[in-house]
Structure formats: C-alpha cells, structure tokens
Fold Amine oxidase domain-containing protein.
Amino acid sequence: AAAPLVGVFGGGVAGLACARALGEGGVRAVVLERGRSVGGRASTRFAPPEYSEPRWDHGCQFVSAKSARFSSTCERLLEAGALAEWEGTFGTLDSRHDRFVEDVKRKRRLVGGATGAMADLCAQLLHEAEERGASIVTRAELLGVAAPDGAGAGWEARVRRNGATEAMRFDALVATDRAMAPVLEAAAPDIAGSMRAAAQGAAPSFALMLELATPLEGAPDGIFVAENPVLSWLSKESSKPKRRAGRDGEGAELWTAHSSAEFAKLVVQEHGMTARGTEAHDAALEHVTSEMLAAVREVTQAAGWGKLDLLTPPSAHRWGNAFPGPCADAAVAERRVASSPCGTLVACGDWAAPEGQQGRVEAAYLSGEAAAGALLASLATAGAGAKL
Ligand SMILES: Cc1cc2nc3c(=O)[nH]c(=O)nc-3n(C[C@H](O)[C@H](O)[C@H](O)COP(=O)(O)OP(=O)(O)OC[C@H]3O[C@@H](n4cnc5c(N)ncnc54)[C@H](O)[C@@H]3O)c2cc1C
C-alpha cells in the first residue's frame, strides 16, 4: 500500500514544521496555503521585483528560543544559513519621558539569514519538508471538511483553487489557523471549539512600512515603545544582516512600526474587520497610516533622532489575528495539539501552547511537530499504509 497522504492546511511555521516532521516519519504531506506564498505571519512584504529592496518584515520581528528543542532547531537553521543573528542596539523608549534605555542583557535575536528577510525562515522549512517528500500548493483555500464515511475513503476536503472548488481526499488532515474553526465545525466540533476559544482573546495589530531618504541619526535598531497610545515597536530593517538601504542606491533606511494593542483594537472597533480590496479597507488603512505616521514622527523627533524624511509614501498592513488569546483547553495547551476522536484530524498553531508561550514562532514550530507526532501515532494504530 502507498504511504498515507496528509493534507496540511496553512503554510506558516506550524504547517511547514508539521509537514517536515511527517516526512521524517515516512508520511507524505501536501501543504495547501491560501496565500500566494508560504510564511503566514512570519513573512516579508516586498515591493516588486521580489527579493530586492525595499522589503519589510511586517509581521514577526525576530525569532528567539526558550526550550531546548527549539534552540536545537534554531542551531540547525543557523547552520543552514536560513537564520542569522541580528546584532544591534535594542532597548525601550519611554515615550512619556522621551527616554531610551538600552537593554543591558544580551539576548539572541534571529532574523532571516539567506537574504536578511524573515521570509527566509519559511523558505528553508519548505525546502526541508520538500526534501522529505512534501509538496506545496499555493492559492488553495480550505472551505469545508467531511468526515471519513467508514469505507476507507479518508477525509474529504473542499478546496477553492483557481476560482473553482474541488474535493480532495486525504488519509489525515491538519488545520493550522484559528480562522479555520467554522470550516471544521461540522466534521470536528471539539477542535473547532478549541480554536474558537483561542480566537476569543485574540488581538489584531497594524504594521506601518517606511522608506526614508535620510537616516534617523543615532537611532537604535530595535525599539520597544512604552507608554504610547499608538505604537509598540520600531525596527530599523536596514540594520539586519545582508540588508541594504533603499532601492538602487537611493534611500537611507527602511523602518517598520507596529501599533499598540489598544490602538489596533480601537481601529477594528471603529472600522470593523474590513475585507481586503474594498473601499472600506482602504479607508481604514489610510486612517491607520496617518495616525501611526504622526506618532512615529513625534516619538523619533522627541527622542532626538531627527526629522522623519520620507522617500516614498508609507503603507500599512492589518494583521487581523495577530496574537492568539490563551488556550482555554488545558490538555490542548499541554500537548500543543487538538485531535479529533479518531485521531486523524488535528489542529495546531501558535495558539496551541501553554499560558504565556502563545503567539511566537517557537510555539508555532513546536505545535507543528506535536501535530505530526500525534498523526504518526494515529496512522500507525489505524494501520493506514505499509510504511508505518
Ligand atoms: C505583528 C506581529 C509581530 C510578531 N512578532 C513576533 C516576534 O518578534 N517573535 C516571534 O517569535 N513571533 C512573533 N509574532 C508571532 C509569529 O509570527 C507567529 O507566532 C507565527 O508566525 C505563527 O505561525 P502559524 O503557522 O501558527 O500561523 P500563521 O503564520 O498565521 O499561518 C497560518 C497559515 O494558514 C493560512 N490559512 C488560513 N486559512 C486558510 C484556509 N482556509 N486554507 C488554507 N490556508 C489558510 C494563512 O494564510 C497562513 O499562511 C508576531 C506576529 C505578528 C502578527
């Protein structure tokens, strides 16, 4: 019999870590990602042409490891050149007193190593998964799931691809995004419930991407902004390894700003979760751009780093489900995976983690591996495939 085939929905860190670990266990995975490339919240915004400047890591800023397991993963990715250390000056700007306090404790902050962009991380995870037999389909969105009918036909996933809907069959399924809860409701209500619970305390976030004509003199490289109603973080993209300033030798620095949680919540309350490509969404982003730009101008000038001198108009991005809330199901948090009673539909992601560990690349990676471990055990028990 052929090796079992697993459909992994979502090509972020969790989905790719899962596909890689399934491959290690001799199981083929097909990663199906709704977007046009892998990465999810650990991705990079490019202005065309791709892989050249200007680029902004508009989601995840840097990767750090707390557990021994993820530390060894980071070592592997450093060795492969997919991650590199972001060396620079980091600290906190108290914007009420316009005072910057540099971090004295040295912490290892890892960013993209191949091209200096966060997208390098998922590009490498995809490469490693493909080396282990996985394949990827982009622009493929999971719309619905039907449970196995007992005749050995496996799970049926309804997938939208190239504007058409098709049915795909898999021996097992992995769902990696809390937004998939409604899609799983009918076939796996328990899993949908766990995902919905984590989505309840979730927080949105906005990123503002800036291209400057002249540098912010003396500004540090990574700045946590405290006591500010609009901002939480500023990063000098062009200080990351292998990065240079603007396009074609023009431009001096690229910066990314992240909103405060309160500001993002207020914007979403006022404008709603507007759909991309609509006038309402453009209006919301215009409002965000103007408010965040004013706040960046104010804090950088007050801190003594000079006037903001824009080379190009800034742009904003909304992360609707930026950070998950606490995982309400203690067993799911502990195991880092939610499983259906039959064990062949599992859900993972940065939301399936113990209290205080959610919402980080480390949590996503460990959850992806846990999902693969749970599936490998279930498929072995079910005897689905001669290879197991
Ligand atoms: C602004 C911001 C800053 C951050 N900073 C840091 C940081 O400094 N350090 C850190 O460790 N972490 C940080 N994080 C968190 C980190 O980015 C995430 O924890 C991690 O990337 C989550 O990976 P994931 O695979 O669980 O989810 P995701 O990356 O969200 O991946 C889920 C994927 O599923 C896809 N998908 C959704 N629905 C469907 C569907 N129906 N069909 C098919 N595909 C679908 C999505 O397109 C997405 O690609 C930050 C996040 C944000 C938003």
In short: The pocket of flavin-adenine dinucleotide is lined by residues 9-15, 32-35, 40-42, 59-63, 141-142, 176-177, 179-180, 183, 205, 207, 258, 319, 322, 349-350, 359-362, 364 (CB under 6 Å). The radius of gyration is 21 Å. The chain has a mean pLDDT of 93.
